[in-house]
Amino acid sequence: MSMKQIETLVFDYGGVIVNIDDASVVKAMESLGVTAFKRLIHVRKIKRLMHQYINGLVAEAETLKEMLSLCRKGTTTEDIEKVLEELCGNLPVERLEALVKLRKRYKVYLLSNINDTLWQKSVSQMNQLGYSTDELFDEVFLSYAMRKEKPSIEIYEEMTQQTGLNPAATLYFDDRTENAEAGKRFGFQSVLVKTNHLEEHQEWQEINKNIV
């Protein structure tokens, strides 16, 4: 599809807009005594807990309590919450500047699997850089608020119903294969982003041409 036919842009957050560092999360968890975290992250229970925490579909207190059982004695839920702030990542101001400019030509939406705590911290990061979500996005769609998560078809359907966007004229950026493929099946023009390297993709370069 020609970029001239694109009307709407949909962005994932972690790994696309914000740079994330899984290694820093592993290091931080190991600092709490979960010495095998790097190995355990692939174990079903750990994967489930991290998934639950990030997506916000299960009460955070419940998930943190389970995580606490894996840590050294004396660790508190506050300790874990502080460590998990690493998940907020590093937010390049250049991407925020680009989003503001892109809104002059396109409808721009955010679609993210994220919990309330991480989202509020992410909003604070944006504010510290001088931007509000209202400046960056026409609307945000977040898993914890919608009680749905990618890659379920329901989350794409709800976003489409609320915005009236045309999937065929929508460019969708996500760094998870399963999400990008789900978006493609739904009818989006999907771009599988190399995590933290949005600028390397031709589609990103194309939509930013001649934007001032």
Automatic annotation (TrEMBL):
InterPro entries: HAD-like_sf, HAD-SF_hydro_IA, HAD_sf, PGP-like_dom2. It comes from the Bacteria. This is HAD family hydrolase. One of its GO terms (molecular function) is hydrolase activity. The keyword Cell wall biogenesis/degradation does not apply. The keyword Hydrolase applies. It holds the Pfam family Hydrolase. Keywords: Hydrolase.
